[in-house]
Amino acid sequence: MIACATCGNEYEKAFTVTQMGETLTFDSFQCAIHRMAPTCAHCGCRVIGHGVEREGATYCCDHCAGE
Predict the structure, then answer these.
(1) Are 56 and 41 in contact (CB under 8 A)?
(2) Domain boundaries defined on the chain
(3) Fewest CB within a 10 Å sphere: which of 37, 44, 52, 56?
(4) pLDDT of 29-54, one tens digit each?
(5) CA distance 65 to 47
(6) Whole-number Å distance between alpha carbons of 65 and 61
(7) Is the pLDDT score of 66 beyond 90?
(8) Parallel, antiparallel, or unpaired for β 22-26 and 15-19?
(9) Which pLDDT belongs to residue 30?
């Protein structure tokens, strides 16, 4: 078994995600999101959906992009 790239847990149902040429193994979607999802430039939350991009920054919503 391969250890989770975020928490180090070894889990028989782990999965891999490839992003921009880097492949990492995770034991849960929570760990994958924590490691790979972008962070809102205003409030700091993880952007799980589409988000909003403005002037090279990523935001979780239009409200944060406007702040």
Answers:
(1) no
(2) 1-36, 38-67
(3) 56
(4) 999 999 999 999 999 999 999 999 99
(5) 12
(6) 6
(7) yes
(8) antiparallel
(9) 96
Closest CA relative to residue 54, chosen from 65, 67, 43? 65
Residue given tokens 């250890």 in the structure block: 3
CA 33 to chain centre: 3
Residue 64 tokens, joined: 């944060």
Of 1, 2, 4, 3, give the one whose Cα is nearest residue 36. 4
**26 vs 4: CA distance, rounded Å:** 4
Show Cβ contacts of residue 5 under 8 Å, excluding neighbours closer than 6 positions: 24, 25, 26, 31, 35
